């Protein structure tokens, strides 16, 4: 998708649902070319026992299938969403629009607002996970 639209893979936001041992489910947003450092992700979420949610759990939680999950509008009150901090350096981001092949183009600042995301370092082992007083 990123190449077809003329921007970097980093700008194509992956929306991933993780499940915590408490039953909580969270949204984690990373650039298309990024992977979360397990320790950073566990620290941000606040649990050592997390796993990717199964496809049926993703559909139940979001109303969407894996590969088409929008970054915002479906989350109930108090649902936690996390955005990889380095994505704030991008001029524009693309996120799923709810159907395979549909993308929403949005500025990082508006993505944070729309998803009520907690901005954290999920990819760099050398930097602190929380970039401000959160956590």
- Count of distinct strands: 7
| Computed structural class | alpha/beta
The helix/strand series, from N terminus to C terminus, equals HEEHEHEEEHE
**Average pLDDT value?**
92
Strand content: 25-35%
Number of helices: 4
Radius of gyration: 14 Å
Folded structure, characterized:
With 135 residues, this protein is α/β, with parallel strands linked by helices. It is built from 4 helices and 7 strands. A 5-stranded mixed sheet has the order 3-1-2-4-7. β1 and β2 (25-31) form a beta hairpin.
Question: What is the strand and helix layout of this fold?
Answer:
Blueprint: H1 2-5, E1 13-20, E2 25-31, H2 38-45, E3 50-52, H3 55-62, E4 81-84, E5 93-96, E6 103-106, H4 108-115, E7 117-120
Parallel strand pairs: 2-4, 4-7
Antiparallel strand pairs: 1-2, 1-3, 5-6
Key structural traits:
135 residues, alpha/beta, two-stranded antiparallel sheet, 4 helices, 25% strand
């Amino acid at each position: 998708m990123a190449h077809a639209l003329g921007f970097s893979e980093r700008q194509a936001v992956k929306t991933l649902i993780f499940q915590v041992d408490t039953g909580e489910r969270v949204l984690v947003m990373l650039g298309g070319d990024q992977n979360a450092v397990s320790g950073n992700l566990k620290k941000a979420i606040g649990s050592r026992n997390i796993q990717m949610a199964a496809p049926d759990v993703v559909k139940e939680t979001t109303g969407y299938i894996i590969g088409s999950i929008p970054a915002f509008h479906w989350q109930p009150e108090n649902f936690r969403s996390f955005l990889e901090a380095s994505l704030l350096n991008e001029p524009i981001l693309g996120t799923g629009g709810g159907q395979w092949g549909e993308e929403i183009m949005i500025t990082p600042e508006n993505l944070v607002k729309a998803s009520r995301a907690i901005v954290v370092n999920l990819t760099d082992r050398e930097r602190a996970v929380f970039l401000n007083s959160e956590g």
